Amino acid sequence: MSKILVTGGTGYIGSHTVVELYKAGYTPVIIDNLSNSNIKMLEQIEKIIGIKPEFHQFDLCDVEQTTAFINDNPDISGIIHFAASKAVGESVQKPLKYYHNNFFSLINLLEAYQGKKINFVFSSSCTVYGEPDVLPVTESAPVKKATSPYGNTKQIAEEILEESAAAYNNYNIIALRYFNPVGAHESALIGELPIGVPQNLLPFITQTAIGKREKLTVFGNDFDTPDGYCIRDFIHVVDLAKAHVAAIQLLEKGNPNGKYDVFNVGTGNGYSVLEAIKAFEKVSGQALNYEVGPRREGDIVKVYGDVTKSSKELGWKAELGIEEMMSSAWKWENYLKENPIG
Ligand code: WQD
Predict the structure, then answer these.
(1) Ligand 1 pocket, 204 CB below 6 A?
(2) Interacting residues of 153 by C-beta distance below 8 A, sequence separation 6+
(3) Residue 339: what pLDDT?
(4) What whole-number distance in Å separates Cα of residue 63 and Cα of residue 100?
(5) For the residues 220-239, what does the mean pLDDT come to?
(6) CATH fold of 3-182+235-266+306-311, please?
(7) Alpha-carbon distance 320 to 160, whole Å?
(8) pTM score, two decimals?
(9) Is the CB of 46 under 6 A from ligand 1?
């Protein structure tokens, strides 16, 4: 049973990926420094899969610990690298924190594997496309200048990976460009655990509906879209987790496209913020308290992915729709109310 290292494995997407890896027959091993996640997620994962995954708490920016861990674990055949700082707004306030965390961890991992064969899946983002000129956006669309240090770390990390795959013959790499991950595991035992006030739409919606927030402010409804609201490609986190398993499987088989490749991970469907709110209201059976406020600086107006390449070459396709995304997120928020974590 192949061992797959999941960095950031107690986080939102990481924890769902650990579950899907295990279900697909892999042995996931987690490294997380718990800077933005809770150790209790390990028990939550155990409630789903029946075993507590191997867990190591340290910071991948620590080169000695990272190198020692890799040397001590030669049976790891693949890495899914989630561990990174990811708050767009904070990255503008603290760019050095983002460049430090996101690059040192990546470079330490790559250097620790120099001369050793490794399959590597990187957590990238549709943020690299900026405001796309053509929709749905394909993987060959130009990468636009990043609008935040966070976005810049994803762009530069992709370059580091592409150049490393070309220069050394031991890395086989796939970067997955996520659109907007939402929802939770159907068991409602794992899901997103935002620290403080949520910056993203879905946790803000569910926290408002449960009464933790007074109301949702929608950032503008006068955009050049059919209903005036921004459009996003929301993707269920369980589908997203499965895309990582598919990426590992493709790397194991040998990717005919070469040693470095990128894939869009979305549904291919764009929903407006208003449509998302309406879908939430429908599945929760309650009206959401929201008001329309001013635009948020830097927001993309509309983005959704072309998923032809993912479905043909990665052999992966999203299966869950907007209602499953909303209902699972709502079920998770209700679970948290009864069973607070953190
Ligand atoms: C979605 C829509 C907001 C909150 C995120 C990441 C980005 C990338 C993609 C990873 C927008 C609106 C939101 C609120 C609102 N992911 N909104 N009120 O902006 O697409 O970006 O996903 O790399 O880095 O930040 O997601 O959930 O913040 O916003 O009206 O309180 O919801 O304006 O139109 P976004 P989001």
Answers:
(1) yes
(2) 84, 91, 98, 99, 102, 103
(3) 97
(4) 13
(5) 98
(6) Rossmann fold (3.40.50)
(7) 33
(8) 0.98
(9) no
